[in-house]
Amino acid sequence: MGGSLWTSRVFQRKKRTRSRICVDIAGSLVYFSITRKSFWSASLMEHDDYTPAVLLVDDEANILSSLRRLLRRQAYDIFTAESGAEGLSILEKERIDLVVSDMRMPEMSGAEFLKIVAEKWPDTVRIILTGYADLEATVQAVNTAGIFRYLSKPWDEQDLLSTIDQGLQTLKLRRERDFLVEELKRVNEGLEQEVRARTEEIRQTAEMLDLAYKEISTSYTSIIRVFASLMSLNKKRFKGQSRAVADLAKYLGAALKLPKEEVKQIYYAGLLHEVGKIVLPDTVLSKPEATLEGEALDTYRKYPLHGELALTSVEGLSKARRFIRHHCEFFNGSGFPDGLKGEDIPVGARILRLARDYVGLQTGLILPQPLDHEGAADYIENHARTLYDPQIVEVFKRIRHKLTLEIMPAEEVMCRSHALKPGMALTRDLLSESGMLLVARGQTLTENIIDKILKIEKSEKAQYKIFVEPQAEEAGA
Question: pLDDT tens, 280-320?
């Protein structure tokens, strides 16, 4: 059996009351309304009024008649049984809320009967009638059958009525409690489902934002790379290899276990560290740094400041700008533009200085005679503590043999067709005026190829700009 009930007292009030319950679950206030009727089980809600069912069990017919007369004026459905077996049969068929049983009955005692009732219909209220001689058996019944109350024979009518009423009230309250517990479980499950759905929605949103950020970041990096590539196309103005500098700086930053965002800013600074040279005259940029002096040197030393200024409006490059400003500082304080020393120089700028010089020593940016990669590495190592941070030099020594940096030849020379000589190698594709490929980059010129170039040039009435690798005497000049 299930559901809740009203006692006889409650049934006189036809008006139902409604309660509004507020529950705080997981920080959320949840309201739900319940009526008194909603406390009944689903099977009981078919009726507007529910009458509690009471089963009376005694082997003496006159006692059953007395109990029936006593309860006749109460709003109960009364069932009677003259044995425990008959009582069990009624319980199998009817919905019983409260059982009143005599203790001493033949074949099946009240204690045995109520024990079975407790096992099969635990929701029932169980009351036992007993004589003084049955006290020991009554104690056993209380312990094994979960008796709500026991009353002595002969009973007091008001005491019996009050006990039955209290038992039904207790049952009602218990069922109301169970209903609220189930309702709270249902609400909680609904909240959990909502929280799970919200969490999944947030997770998906976060993934989308993360993906969008990565796409933007990738696009941002690509734009910077393109800009750096455009600068490097003019070899006369930009002898440094920005991509190689940026790659080496990134490797060094990662090897030093710097935060990922700082390594990214160092990489950006490497790609853009020469942007300030755009405003410098060719007469300054055409010479290696070591040969500059006087006004030309003063002009050249301003390019880190020009680079910082050029990127001022780009919000995502705040750290990169600082690294660019200080990437020409030396560890001993003899660098430019601010003469910073040691750890006063931002670590990103110290990394960039080493990377920039390692590449620049091989491209002719720094010394009149370019060095090979071993010579450039020796130069870096020999100037630890004076020009370069010794800690970064140690990391450089450890990782440089693992690196694959694409560093192009120091320079290329532009010459006219009449100055071509056999053995020269092209550094760029040679195209006709119409865009047709005449000689591919890397091709070594022969007398035959030079003759063909001259004939085509004459027929097109053009003067080709031909870029070749510098020959030994030119490189040493």
Answer: 888 888 788 999 999 999 999 999 999 898 888 777 788 99
Cis status of the peptide bond prior to 288, with omega within 30 of 0: no
CATH number, position 342: 1.10.3210.10
CB 440 within 8 A of CB 467: no
Specify the CATH number for the domain of residue 453: 3.90.105
437 CB-side CA count, 13 A: 7
- Residue 63's contacts (CB-CB under 8 Å, 6 or more residues apart) are 102
Where b means 16+ CB within 10 Å and e means fewer, 425-449 reads: ebbeebeeeeeeebbeeeeebeeeb
Whether residue 148 is contained in a domain is answered as yes
- Same domain for 386 and 439? no
The DSSP call for residue 177 is: H
Helix (H, G, I), strand (E, B) or coil at 436: coil
Taking only Cα atoms into account, the Rg of the chain, rounded to an integer number of angstroms, comes to: 49
Residues 370/363, Cβ–Cβ less than 8 Å: yes
Q: By the 8 A CB rule, do 417 and 453 touch?
A: yes
Per-position DSSP letters for 341-371, written without gaps between them = -GGGS-HHHHHHHHHHHHHHHHHTSSSSS--
Kindly give the confidence (pLDDT) of every residue in the chain, 477 residues in length, as a single tens digit, with 9 standing for 90 and above. Answer: 333 333 333 333 333 333 444 444 344 444 444 433 334 343 343 344 678 999 999 999 999 999 999 998 888 999 999 999 999 999 999 999 999 999 888 889 888 899 999 999 999 999 988 875 556 666 666 656 678 888 888 888 998 999 999 999 988 888 888 888 888 888 888 787 877 777 777 777 677 766 666 665 655 666 666 566 556 555 444 544 788 899 999 999 999 999 999 999 999 999 899 988 888 888 888 788 999 999 999 999 999 999 898 888 777 788 999 999 999 999 999 999 999 999 999 999 999 999 999 999 988 889 877 888 889 999 999 999 999 999 999 999 999 887 766 665 545 677 888 889 998 888 777 888 877 888 887 788 999 999 999 998 888 888 888 878 776 544 443
Distance CA 138, CA 151 (A): 10
Q: What is the domain range of residue 182?
A: 8-192
In the chain, the amino acid numbered 67 is L
Cis peptide before 52 (omega within 30 of 0): no
Is residue 213 in a domain? no
CB atoms within 10 A of CB 90: 16
CB neighbourhood size of 41 (10 A):
17
Instruction: Map residue 147 onto helix, strand or coil.
Output: coil
At what angle are helices 347-363 and 318-325 packed, to 10 degrees? 60
Distance of alpha carbon 167 from alpha carbon 99, whole angstroms? 10
